[in-house]
Amino acid sequence: MPHYDWVDVEASATEELIGKINALSTYSIFKAEKTHLQVSALPFYKNFKFVKATTFSTIPPVTMHYLLANDGTVIKMDGTREPIFENNAKGGLILNEQTVVAYATFVLDAVMTENGSLRLVEKVDEETFTSTPTPEQRRDVTHMIRPAKVTKTADGFKLDCIMLYGDAVFRADIDVKADGFIEILGEEKLGEGLPIRPIFLE
Fold first, then answer.
1. In this predicted model, what pLDDT tens digit does every residue of 43-53 receive, in sequence order?
2. Residue 84, number of CB atoms within 10 A of its CB
3. Is the pLDDT score of 200 beyond 60?
4. pTM for the predicted model, two decimal places
5. With CB atoms counted within 10 Å of each terminal CB, which end of the chain scores lower, N or C?
6. What gap in Å lies between CA 182 and CA 108, rounded to an integer?
7. pLDDT in tens, 56-98
8. d(Cα 57, Cα 34) in Å, to the nearest integer?
9. Phi/psi class of residue 137: alpha, beta or left (left: φ > 0; alpha: ψ in -120 to 50)?
């Protein structure tokens, strides 16, 4: 999961935002008294912030994510990359050597599959492992993970990066176009059977 600086949404804005969020679903899952709303700036967007909405009216609690535009429009993240790609122009996408890795991490993390999302990682932290690794596993994974290498191209950027997917570690080549479109050009498996598989709550 990319790093976000989450702050609580002010109480005065909660009800209106919950109304907009509920309007994007078939039924109103979020209720003001049982919902925790947080928002984070995104370094690669001028006009969007990232919203995390958690409802405690279900067991287990359910968390959903949204993009919040400066004009108050809310865009639902639906487990695909389309909500991002279709709204990059509106979001005022800022892609440069400093923001492109964060953007690629955000896009890959947004796409959910049966094995979880693709996690672009640059260092080992407390979120790397989803169960306790053996000392040997920790050493192996630590040796595989490194910062992404960014190369500017005529129409965007190329990334040489490390990704976690399921229980495996990959080195991947990713093409990021200037308009934000992302394509994985190739990958190479570095290790598998590792305690890094995301935990799913049914």
1. 999 999 999 99
2. 23
3. no
4. 0.92
5. C
6. 9
7. 988 888 899 999 999 999 999 999 999 999 999 999 999 999 9
8. 6
9. alpha
Count CB atoms within 10 A of the CB of residue 177.
15
Beta bridge partners of 37: 53
The amino acid occupying position 165 is Y
Q: In Å, what is the CA distance from 153 to each residue of 63, 120, 145, 158, 193? A: 37, 20, 24, 7, 35
Helix boundaries (H) for 64-202: 82-85, 88-91, 100-110, 135-144
CA dihedral 70, 41, 178, 80 (to 10 degrees): -90
44 φ, ψ (degrees, to nearest 5): -100, 5
pLDDT at 199: 54
Q: How far apart are CA 137 and CA 193, in angstroms?
A: 10
